[in-house]
Design a protein that fits this description.
Mean pLDDT: 87
Structural class: mainly alpha
Order of helices and strands: HHHHHHHHHH
Number of helices: 10
Helix content: 55-70%
Radius of gyration: 19 Å
């Protein structure tokens, strides 16, 4: 009896370099921050200063993150990839500020679902919805970062986490031709698909109210 040789195993698909970079860097910094290690606390403080801004214009952030994978993976647009990574990382740093639990969760909520969790069950909070819509209609990545900053403050105020590796991947896609519509559809689907628990909803605060709470 002749035995047919088994086909060689197919190598696993490479991890998305943008998502993988953010996952690795947040994993390192988040663990350090929650363990109150001074180097991680200081790094997040520096990153936080770039939240909602064009990271390329803030020299203090240069060299703070390991972005080698973005420059060694074939097919990656390094400038766009770095912009996505730094935007996601600065927003994460803002989100994690003064929080004792992890605000990044791999496999956790996408942006739309996280925003929906800010709202009472069965209701639409119109001010929050308008901020979400404004983020989706941002004309540039810098404008998008500024509008996401507002949503990040609301999520932080309610201790709602986000998958920042996924967000970075989407911010990278957002910069490609046709990417904005793709990302908007994904955010919209996750917003409408999420069904909040009746026991976990809390009224959303405005970003200004959230800042005042953290300053007290």
């Amino acid at each position: 009896m002749t035995t047919t040789p088994a086909a060689p195993a197919r190598p696993p698909a490479p991890a998305d370099p943008v998502a993988e970079t953010v996952r690795k860097e947040i994993g390192r910094l988040q663990q350090g921050y929650l363990s109150d290690r001074s180097e991680a606390v200081a790094a997040l403080a520096r990153l936080r200063r770039g939240a909602g801004k064009d990271a390329a214009t803030i020299p203090d952030l240069w060299g703070l993150l390991d972005t080698e994978l973005l420059h060694t993976t074939p097919g990656v647009r390094p400038d766009e990839a770095e912009a996505a990574v730094f935007t996601a990382m600065t927003l994460y740093a803002l989100h994690q500020q003064s929080r004792s639990t992890a605000m990044h969760r791999t496999g956790g909520d996408e942006l739309g679902a996280a925003v929906r969790r800010l709202m009472p069950p069965g209701e639409i909070d119109e001010p929050v919805r308008k901020r979400f819509v404004r983020a989706g209609s941002a004309p540039t990545l810098t404008a998008l970062a500024a509008r996401l900053r507002e949503l990040t403050l609301l999520l932080r105020g309610e201790d709602l986490s986000l998958d920042y590796a996924l967000l970075a991947q989407q911010l990278y896609a957002w910069q490609r031709p046709g990417g904005r519509d793709q990302v908007r559809r994904s955010w919209g689907r996750s917003f409408h698909a999420h069904r909040p628990s009746k026991n976990t909803a809390a009224p959303a605060r405005t970003p200004d109210e959230t800042d005042q709470k953290d300053a007290s």
